[in-house]
Structure formats: C-alpha cells, structure tokens
Specification:
- It comes from Aspergillus granulosus.
- By secondary structure, this protein is of the alpha/beta class.
- Helices cover 44% and strands 13% of the residues.
- The chain is built from eleven helices and ten strands.
- Strand 4 (111-115), helix 5 and strand 5 (148-152) form a beta-alpha-beta unit.
- The longest helix is centred in the C-terminal third of the chain and has 25 residues, at 309-333.
Length: 334
C-alpha cells in the first residue's frame, strides 16, 4: 500500500466559473472538502475586490486572512500570461509583473504561475526570451519573500509546448527561483489525446507518452519541478472540426478543448478518458516527486449560476481519492 505525502491544492477556477461564485465562497468550499492549498486566479481576486469596492491589494489582504483562518496555504497567483517575447517595451511588461508580484507577496503565494507564450504578437528568438525571463525571475527575487516563477509548457504554446522545451529554457534562464509547473492536460493533449481521431488517441500516442514519461523521470531535476497540475479531458464525439459549436477560427483546438471540456481526473461519467494515472505513476511514484499537486480544470457546467461550489469541491477531492486508489493498484501490479 503506497502512502503519498503530496499536499493537495485546487485552482479557484475549478470551484465555479459564474460571477456569482465569489472567491471567498470558493475558498470556504475548498477548506470544507480537504484541500490544503489554493491557486488564486487573478480574475477571481480582481472580481472579489471590485465587488467589495476595494483596491486589489486590500482584497488580497482579506483573502490571505481568510485562508490563514481556514488553514489554507496559497500556492500560486495565476496565470501571468504572454509575458516573454511580446513585441512591447520590456519595461512596461516588467511594471505589470511588479504589480502581480506585489499581490503575490501580499497573498503569501509561493509561486507566480507563468504559462508559456501563446500570443500572436511575439518573437521566438530564444536569446530575447531567456533574457526577459531572467529579468522576471530577478524581479521576483529582488524583495522578500522571494517569489518563484513556475513556468508551464502548454500544448498550444508557440515555442515551449513540451516539458523538454520548457526544461531547456529553464536551464538557460539559470535562476534558482525559475522552474516548471507541469500539467497532465498539456502533456497528454500534446502526445496522446487527439481531438480529431474517433478513438480520441493518436495512433502513436501510447508509445510517445511512454517514452516521454520514461525520460521525464530521469531528465527533470527534482529542484526544477516546482509543482504538478491535474485534469482530464472529454473525448470529442464526433471528432472536432470546423462545424463543431465550440470551433473558433484561428484558435488552437487544444485551447478550445481546454476551455470547455476539462473535468477532474478519472471522471469517466463526464467523459474523462485520459491516462492521468499513468502520468502520476511516473512523476509521483517512479520519480518520487513529493511536492504540491494541484487540481486545475475548466468545466463548462460550472458556468451556471446555480452550480454549487460544494459540489465542485467534493468532485475534486473524490477525484484525488480515486487517483490514489488507482496508483495503489498500479503499484501493486508492478
């Protein structure tokens, strides 16, 4: 019988996606259902502060106090998007970053979560991207407490869509507070899960995933794997195409998929079908990663005002319990 020691967090976007689902209510629901930490989504904090007629910094102080009262850690402030390589003055972008970092410090967040660039107005020149990421990391370490930058390769990112690409960038940036956030959705939709195939799986997907996971166990330095995010995905039936009601011209299919159909891991009753357990077997068991694990899903059902936050939180915790059970079973069969 395995015993995982990972602390479990949940993103505030996973607990409701209607304006009526306010941040304070989401936090209480997470605390009531067993979670140890939160990823605070900036838009949730901004909406909460606006509704309270407060500056966002004051709203952040209130949210930190609420989390302290409930015994919840704040893992990250997220997502700080499309920073690197954007064709705008770097000083303007660093000024925005400084404001985010100030809020992260007020919250007591460990990480600023940074998805890899996917905007249209950007350069792929690696020397530029490395320099700008070094400046971001240095800014994040220029005051106390130091904030670490958790860089997330996304399956639709322009230049760093895989963990190998993001790890290369991490080593080039070469800052102790710059590392990786790895998300099962992006790993799997890049290698294994196809929105176009009737099976939902690329023909060479299982082999590619197995090879990638083998290498991730040995090649990713433990001190550069900051935390892991979990979600599943629904199979497209029929396969995704331009006639699909979710289709948006020019939008990456994986991005469309992510926005609408990412249930909690192993929610097969809601269409989840990805081998999330296989990924965690590699990272949590074989690699022995014992850091934070965080739920990050986007479920269109939660856009309904009547959707209950307690239901969302209960689904998340049930998913984690199911994952632990499946990992135990998989380990017993080895």
């Amino acid at each position: 019988m395995i015993s995982l020691t990972n602390k479990i967090a949940i993103g505030t976007s996973c607990l409701g996606q209607n304006p009526a689902h306010t941040l304070d209510l989401k936090i209480r629901a997470a605390a009531q259902h067993g979670f140890s930490g939160l990823e605070i989504v900036y838009s949730d904090l901004d909406r909460y502060s606006t509704l309270q007629n407060l500056p966002i910094t004051t709203g952040a102080k209130q949210i930190r106090q609420l989390c302290d009262d409930l015994g919840l850690a704040i893992l990250s402030l997220a997502p700080f998007e499309n920073f690197e390589g954007t064709r705008s003055p770097i000083q303007d972008r660093l000024a925005v970053a400084a404001a985010w970092l100030n809020i992260a410090r007020i919250l007591g967040a460990t990480y600023l979560q940074v998805p890899a660039q996917y905007g249209d107005s950007c350069t792929g020149e690696e020397t530029v991207i490395v320099s700008e990421m070094q400046q971001l990391a240095d800014l994040a370490s220029s005051a106390s407490p130091v904030i670490s930058v958790a860089y997330e390769p996304m399956s639709w990112s322009h230049f760093y869509p895989t963990w190998e690409d993001a790890l290369r960038l991490t080593m080039l940036v070469d800052r102790p507070n710059f590392g990786l956030c790895l998300d099962t959705f992006h790993i799997l939709t890049r290698l294994w899960a196809s929105p176009f195939d009737t099976s939902g799986i690329y023909p060479d997907g299982p082999a590619k995933l197995a090879d990638s996971l083998r290498r991730s166990v040995t090649d990713i330095p433990m001190n550069k794997l900051f935390y892991v995010q979990l979600s599943d995905a629904e199979r497209f039936e029929p396969p995704f195409s331009k006639s699909h009601p979710w289709y948006v011209e020019g939008e990456a299919p994986e991005f469309t998929w992510s926005k609408h159909a990412r249930p909690y891991p192993l929610e097969t009753d809601l269409g989840g079908y990805m081998p999330v357990t296989e990924v965690l077997q590699a990272w949590l068991i074989e690699k022995g990663f014992s850091g934070w694990v965080s739920m990050e899903i986007f479920d269109r059902r939660m856009r309904d005002e009547t959707y209950k936050l307690e239901t969302a939180a209960a689904r998340g915790w049930k998913s984690w319990e199911k994952l632990q059970s499946d990992l135990t079973g998989a380990t017993a069969r080895i």
